[in-house]
Amino acid sequence: MYAKVVENIYLLVIVTLISVLQNAFFALKVEKECxxxxxxxxxxxxxxxxxxxxxxxxxxxxxxxxxAGLCLSQAPAxxxxxxxxxxxxxxxxxxxxxxxxxxxxxxxxxxxxxxxxLMCVVGIFNYLLTRYYGSDYKEYVETITGAASALLLLx
Amino acid sequence: MYAKVVENIYLLVIVTLISVLQNAFFALKVEKECxxxxxxxxxxxxxxxxxxxxxxxxxxxxxxxxxAGLCLSQAPAxxxxxxxxxxxxxxxxxxxxxxxxxxxxxxxxxxxxxxxxLMCVVGIFNYLLTRYYGSDYKEYVETITGAASALLLLx
Amino acid sequence: MYAKVVENIYLLVIVTLISVLQNAFFALKVEKECxxxxxxxxxxxxxxxxxxxxxxxxxxxxxxxxxAGLCLSQAPAxxxxxxxxxxxxxxxxxxxxxxxxxxxxxxxxxxxxxxxxLMCVVGIFNYLLTRYYGSDYKEYVETITGAASALLLLx
Lengths: 155, 155, 155
Fold this sequence. Notes:
The structure is a homotrimer of 155-residue chains.
Chain A: H1 2-35, H2 41-71, H3 74-97, H4 110-133, H5 138-149
């Protein structure tokens, strides 16, 4: 039981752990700016805002990644998760470095989230097909998903 | 293994996907107001505040819904989840449309969350009963829960 | 199937339920201050800020606790979760009671989160060892983790 469960989620757990490390990095940045905020309020505000935008999207990201990993297959989901974390890092750094007139918007990583969302939909759809028509396209779909996840690397 | 797992969670996954779509809708609203915020700051602030209130409660909602679905049965949990999302939509729209003197409060969907919480407690209690006394009331409890979830439709 | 699944997560579910109760307590505090905010704005701001800091860390906490519980063993994970909730309660109350010049920082419960994070890493590492070398140290690791979790009680 134990090994079987972990086998199906260990890549997802690893990505989750990396995202937690990143959260800790963001939080430490906020903590640091919070302590010497008498120097420059605008820097603190920008870091806090970037952190809040990242945290707002975090539960959505976790939910979609885990659903995609459980419903379809974990390797492409974990891969898309890693790419999302890289985009988030760039967003956070970009937000901190920008002068206030051209901060990046509220949303980021839309492509990865959309891909993970699509994986969930395909997984559910495939399950319903299996249940009501008895035709299982899982291996087929998994291959396509694995190949499609490489497209996320396109800039 | 795979089909068995998905069978027990697919309704929860569907509700989660709908909630993700709703999150994206909220985030797009914020993004839109963020870009033309030089027109009216108060509108942006109200949308951002409504979004933040919704996002604050989101992890709690996900956790309770998934626990209720895993510990007891997924159909009533998913049903209560859908009702919660409808209430959240109304709350967000109401927040945006209100003039500032009468915004709806910080909390919403208390009844649905309470119902899901109760489902979790009953599920855990039933598991402990099964374990220590060997008496399984699961089918009985599931029927009652299914019937009770209809009461959530009362205004 | 059902009893087996619940057996492996029921402690985690109980801690999650307690954390949800605590979230509700925090939210009610904010709601209360929100309604009579014309009296003192600073009190409302402090409560809202404490609540936001707690909510920012909440998804991270849930993710780490569940991963640790699923990958290694649930009893130490649930124990560390309970300790985290106690620290969070203290943080919230401390934040409300402080005058503004000496609020506690942005982060709290770092030790518990670090312990849970370590549990995840050890669990994943043990799984990979089991898979590629066939040597399972799970019972051994579980005993050590159970003993180490008592160290968290040190002030």
